[in-house]
Amino acid sequence: MLKWVRSAARALIIRNGELLAIRMQRVPDEVFYILPGGGQRHGETLMDTLQRECREEIGTQVRAGEIAYVREYIGRHHHLRKLHKDFHQLEVVFHCELPEGVEPRPGRDHDKHQIGVEWLPLDQLQGMEFYPEVLKTLIVDGQVNTRHLYLGDIN
Q1: Rounded to two decimals, what is the model's pTM?
Q2: Which CATH number characterizes residue 113's domain?
Q3: Which one of 23, 48, 101, 102 counts the least CB within 10 Å of its CB?
């Protein structure tokens, strides 16, 4: 089987003490959250990927800023290893803002496991199943604070 590294772009949107997240569902009682974004297509820039994925998942394009962090996810190293044993993704996460007056909503072409779009209170992230989990520890005073741009293979 041919194996490759998938590249992806994600949006980190924090507003009024809340983080914009995609609500996902694996099975009926298993809900988790991720940042908006997804896989890059051949011939597409990361910025094009970010805008397309945000239109699909949160119903709008975003104003993209600087890179917040870069992470890898090598599935066989993490708790979903049985599901993701051959999955390897490199994610570039951008600080983003929504256009003025726009409220996010599921787009027309969202992922099949996406069941909603939610603003998650930053002070309640610790009790939620949110990926990457390390983001919970990087949010200080309503902002993501990273000492290093590349975070490595994290879940």
Answers
A1: 0.90
A2: 3.90.79.10
A3: 101
What is the tens place of the pLDDT at every residue in 27-82?
Answer: 778 899 999 999 999 999 999 999 999 999 999 999 999 999 999 988 766 655 45
User: How many domains are contained in the chain?
Assistant: 1
| Mean pLDDT value across the chain | 89
Looking at 59-143, list the stretches that DSSP marks H as alpha helix, in order from N- to C-terminal side. 81-84, 135-138
Identify the pLDDT of residue 109: 85
Q: What is the 3-state secondary structure (H, E, C) of the chain?
A: CCCCCEEEEEEECEECCEEEEEEEEEECCEEEEECCEEECCCCCCHHHHHHHHHHHHHCCCCEEEEEEEEEEEEHHHCCCHHHHCCCEEEEEEEEEECCCCCCCCCCCCCCCCEEEEEEEEHHHHHHCCEECCCHHHHEECCEECCCCCEEEECC
The reply to whether 127 falls in a domain is: yes
